Amino acid sequence: MLNELDKELERRGHRFVRYADDCMIFCKSRKSAERTLRNMLPYIENKLFLKVNRDKTSVAHISKVKYLGYTFYCHKGLRFRVHPKSVAKMKMRLRELTDRNNAWSDEYRILKLSQFIRGWVNYFKLADMKQLLRDTDEWVRHRIRAIYWKQWKRVRTRIRKLRRLNLPEWVVLVLANCRKGIWRSALMLNQALTNKVIASLGYPSLTGYYLQVCEN
Q1: pTM for the structure as a whole
Q2: Mean per-residue pLDDT over the chain, rounded
Q3: CA distances from 136 to 88, 119, 133, 143, 176 (A)
């Protein structure tokens, strides 16, 4: 339905990008962009008989734009980042997948995390986000440790599980008898459930998968 819009933009000499009904038109100045917007709105609505969502239509600097979940910045050319709203949505989903109260089996949780991480990273693989993913991985692993700590409710269960991780006996006893809350106990547990151990259990890493597929 918007093929005619593409042709009109090309005829007028505009640089633009469109994906489905999301379109960005690039101009050299704000004044030029405002003039272009004023000219194109009547064409879309009166010639193509399509309604423009005025709430989502604006003139803005490229660094302020959210497009298909991405935002942009200039560094040796135009570069991609994940928009803060997309980051917030991603973390909300990870919080759901690592909720220690959802009564999922470890195998099912690993499966759902793997599916989400593969899909999300593949979609945003054009973005520069190594530090974002490192920080998110650290946060997710803390939540995973909290899940296991809650599962190991009894002191004797904690002792049995911790001994399997080949820790010194005094460390096992100190950790097993910890009386702190789950979140704070999970912080202490990082010396037992290390990043390597968590990976060996099958939990995926956003950073690891990103480094496999990123295009930067």
Answers
A1: 0.84
A2: 91
A3: 11, 16, 5, 11, 27
